[in-house]
Each structure stands twice: as C-alpha cells, then as structure tokens.
Amino acid sequence: MDTASDVAKLVFAGPVGAGKTTAIRSVTDSEPISTEMALSEPAMGDKTTTTVALDFSTAILDDGTPLLVYGLPGQQRFSHMRPIVLEGAFGVVIVLDGSSPDVAEQCEYWLREIRAHQAGMPMVIGITHTDAVAEFSIGPVRSAIRRCGGPVPTFTFDARDREQVAHLVRALLVTMQ
C-alpha cells in the first residue's frame, strides 16, 4: 500500500452472529453485496439469516487507497471459502460475540483457523455485545490469545458505529508498521 493507486484487501472473520456484516456495513461506503440466507437452525435472537459465501463492499482509506472489504461466513460448513477470501488480504479483523459463553473458545478457534490458512497474517480482535453481559471480562479472551501465540490487539466495540469499526482497522494498520 505504497501509493494511492494500490488496492488493499481486508477480511472480517468470526462466528455466526458476532456482527461481521454489521461492521462491514458500518465502515464501508456502500451497502455490502451479501450472500445472506435464512438460518437452517433456529433463529439466534433477532438474527434469522447468515452469510453463506462472503460479504463484500468497498471504502477509500484516508490516503486514497481503495479498500476491498470481505466478510467470511462463520459456519464451519462454509469453511472452504476461507482460503479463497483470505488470499491477498493485508489483515483480518476477528469479530467475536462477547455475550457468548464460549467467547474464549471462539477466539482460540478463529486465531488458529486464520493462522492455518495464512500464517503471519496481521490480526486485530473486536468484541461486540459486551453491553449484553452484566460482568464481561476480557481475561478469558486474553488467555486464549496467549494459548495461540499472542499478542493480538483486542478491543470491545459496537459494530454499528462507523468510528469504532474504523478504530479497529486503524489498529490493524498500526500493527503492520
């Protein structure tokens, strides 16, 4: 990403319902092209659809670089899309659901999954829905990161808030310098 004519590719990854599509919608300049389909399992709260192939949208970085933004499907049965979408990405934002009782296990799974496909890929973790948990603790997530070789910048954020999502992207870019 040395000149404004370069194109950058960013990927959002994480489990179903964590907020990947919402984050992409918040941080990009156009409505994402989405492969949302009805859930084959019971609805997850208000969530009745899931990404089955990928989400895609674009944005322009502060320096004028076009940013291609992709979202990976969270379900294991669509894992064949992961290496395809990850190819050529400069980094990954892992989005986790802080209200999930297994958020630490999800963190460990996604860190290992991304590293299995793209060793050395820069990553940042954003945790959503922490406001839905009376006493959210980031400690178990930090322990999962250490088990996976650490360190990965980790933040709580609201996937609906453009500035908070942009903060995650900027944090990812800083880790690459």
Please sum up the structure shown:
With 177 residues, this protein is α/β, with parallel strands linked by helices. It is built from five helices and seven strands, in the order E-H-E-E-E-H-E-H-E-H-E-H.
Give an overview of the whole structure:
The protein has 177 residues and is α/β, with parallel strands linked by helices. It has 5 helices and 7 strands; from the N terminus they run βαβββαβαβαβα. α1 packs across α5 and α3 packs parallel to α4. The model has no long low-confidence stretch (mean pLDDT 87).
Detail the poorly predicted runs.
Answer: none
Write the element-wise H/E pattern from the N-terminal end onward.
EHEEEHEHEHEH
**Order of strands in the sheet with the most strands?**
2-3-4-1-5-6-7
Structural class: alpha/beta
Q: What does the oligomeric state look like here?
A: single chain
Major sheet, described briefly? 7 strands, mixed
- What is the CA-atom radius of gyration, in angstroms? 15 Å
Approximate helicity band: 25-40%
Number of helix segments? 5
Fill in the keyword field for this structure:
single chain, 29% helix, 26% strand, 177 residues, alpha/beta
What is the secondary structure topology, with strand pairs?
Elements lengths: L7 E6 L6 H8 L5 E6 L10 E12 L5 E6 L9 H6 L4 E7 L5 H15 L5 E6 L10 H9 L6 E3 L5 H14 L2
Parallel strand pairs: 1-4, 1-5, 5-6, 6-7
Antiparallel strand pairs: 2-3, 3-4
Helix pairs in contact: 1-5, 3-4
